[in-house]
Specification:
The complex is a heterodimer of chains A (about 120) and B (about 120).
Chain A (H helix, E strand, L loop, with lengths): L1 E9 H9 L2 H24 L3 E6 L7 E6 L2 E6 L7 E10 L3 H8 L10 E7 L2
Antiparallel strand pairs in A: 1-5, 1-6, 2-5, 3-4
Chain B lengths: L1 E8 L3 H4 L2 H16 L3 E7 L6 E6 L2 E6 L8 E9 L3 H8 L9 E6 L9
Antiparallel strand pairs in B: 1-5, 1-6, 2-5, 3-4
Classes of the chains: A alpha+beta (about 120), B alpha+beta (about 120).
Chain lengths: ~120, ~120
């Protein structure tokens, strides 16, 4: 089964992150990156991990609507939710339980959440 | 630069469309899927099939449904390769759901020193 995993961060954590100096964010990244790489390395070997995308902060988002033929572009994400999407991973897991087991190992699951959605295969 | 276009729409809407309207929209989605700027994307199953996973302490908490309940929910996404976010927004405006829902365009993060 193919799944899209939507990786979220807490809105409060994003605000705190944006207030940090480049040195502080680099230090946190240096600590986190090996955890991600260990998980990704393992998942790639087993063919479970497809494409993955880390996103820039939600404040860099633009939201596009077309109404009456006119394109309206607003700054910011579609919704100001408590948890905000920060990345997306494509997974090819045996079943939902296997996908849940992977999601639980993604570092953001400890702070915010991972939403798993089955992909419709055309 | 790559951009993720998250497609938000009302889930009940598709069922209310006529066969002709569905075929027209499906044609638009297929054309976008095949466009040169499109580097990926997927249609997602309904939010009724969503599972949200959180880990607190040593416990894995699994809940049915999306991480946030919204009137318009994510139904799919595209990855666009564009020179600027403005170009990505121009492509996002071609997605049928832009006419009734909304498309959130997000730059894909590139670490400094990495090639895009």
């Amino acid at each position: 089964m193919k799944y899209a995993a939507l990786l979220t961060s807490n809105a409060d954590d994003i605000v705190a992150w944006e207030k940090m100096s480049p040195e502080e964010t680099a230090a946190i990244r240096a600590e986190e990156v090996p955890k991600w790489e260990a998980l990704f390395g393992e998942l790639r070997q087993t063919g479970v991990l497809g494409a993955g995308f880390e996103l820039d902060s939600p404040k860099t988002a633009k939201t596009v609507r077309v109404r009456g033929g006119e394109t309206l572009v607003t700054d910011g994400p579609f919704a100001e939710t408590k948890e905000q999407i920060g990345g997306l991973l494509e997974l090819d897991a045996e079943d939902l339980d296997a996908a849940i087991a992977i999601a639980a190992r993604i570092p953001v699951a400890l702070r915010a959440s991972v939403e798993l959605r089955p992909v419709i295969e055309h | 630069m790559q951009y993720l276009a998250l497609i938000y729409g009302e889930e009940g809407r598709w069922a209310a469309l006529s066969q002709e309207e569905r075929e027209r929209e499906m044609g638009e989605y297929m054309a976008l899927s095949q466009a040169d700027v499109t580097k990926g994307g997927n249609e997602l199953d309904s939010t009724a099939t969503a599972t949200t996973v959180r880990v607190r302490g040593d416990e894995t908490l699994v809940t049915d449904g999306p991480f946030a309940e919204l009137k318009e929910s994510i139904g799919g996404y595209y990855i666009f390769e564009c020179d600027s976010i403005e170009d990505a927004c121009t492509w996002a405006a071609k997605i049928p759901a832009a006419r009734h829902g909304a498309i959130e365009v997000r730059p894909v993060h590139v670490e400094e020193g990495e090639q895009s």
